[in-house]
Amino acid sequence: MKFIHLADAHLDSPFRGLSFLPYKTYEEIKNAAEKSFQRICDIALKQEVDLVLIAGDTFDSNKPSPKSQLFFANQIKRLTDAKIEVVMIFGNHDYMDLNSLFVNSSPYFHLLGNEQKIEKLSLKTKQGFEYNVVGFSYKNNHITENMVNNFPTKDSTYTIGMMHAGIKTTEQSQNIYAPFEMAELRNLNYDYFALGHIHVREILSQKPLIVYPGNIQGRHINELVAKGCYLGVVDEERKETKISFEKTAPILWQKLDLTLSKQVSKTELQNWLISELNKANTELTFFYVVINEAQYLSEAEVELITDSDFWNNLSQNLAYSSQVVDLRLKSNLQIKLGAKEQKAFSEAKLESTSKSNFVKLAQELIKKDQYLADLCQNDDFQQETVERALVILAQSMKGIDDETNEN
Prior knowledge:
Layout: E1 2-6, H1 23-30, H2 32-47, E2 51-55, H3 66-81, E3 85-89, E4 109-111, E5 119-124, E6 130-135, E7 158-164, H4 182-188, E8 192-196, E9 202-205, E10 209-212, E11 228-235, E12 240-247, E13 252-259, H5 266-280, E14 285-292, H6 299-305, H7 308-315, E15 323-329, H8 339-352, H9 355-361, H10 363-368, H11 370-376, H12 379-406
């Protein structure tokens, strides 16, 4: 028996903060999740799998666009026409009613656990291998209940569990996505547990196999590494499963950490960045570049390289249509001060760059513009602004440090 396990396609997902990119590139990003999903279906057909498991958040919302619904319906039809069983559950993003799902009726398509009820589905491969799939779909966007307690006991039949859920944490506010304990899943002793929700690819347990495939396409700079699905092969006699990762995402997000060691001219800086980017550029990649020791940069250089037009200029020198989509600066200047002065400086630096003070300092801006008010609450924006402020501080302190050393 062969199966594919995917989750978190997030069709219709918006890609914010990338409108500066060329139109053609931006369109590629918007369609990247669809292309990845189509490639997964291509693999399913080529490998002649028996089963495709879709573990939630296929759509980014519970009101998907007609475009994404039609695309999904057409891809599912490709699979069911080939008599491949497709078992799907809804997650916390795409919680819907079965009647809201636009898919052609087929004996090979199954929405599991509609109305948030645990459901067991008994199926059989073309060769006669019997297996069960057990799971549930979201009815609302939050589930605080531990659903594992309601999963049926396994019998001798090969059994797959499906769940869009997160491991229970000590932070109660996070336990709203069908929280579970690892020990509880292991105790079920299902042969394979197909999870969704976490966008990082991770095998939580080998025996039994408990697996997050991650999302099928990274959507921003925090969703790095290759994305795709898992292909599972079951030894039907031993009922043992082996899985392998299949890369399908057309776009790779990659963080590139670079470090300056001296002051350079604008031309030298540009050539150095292009050289380092090309070393890391082996496929269509969206680069998030971090320049450490940014105190070596002049004020004019900081203004230049943090401008999106400069990023576009760098991108024109890259193969595979790769793009620089973010460039950030970090400083690590150590000022030589006395013990008391150093302590006071460190405390002042910590206080002035804390998240609570960030919002206080931005109060005047927040009052004038709702967009800025929302932006100032964004952790990523706060971090970037603080890092930029520290670079400017380092540039200012560099002069003090030089003067201190001379005296």
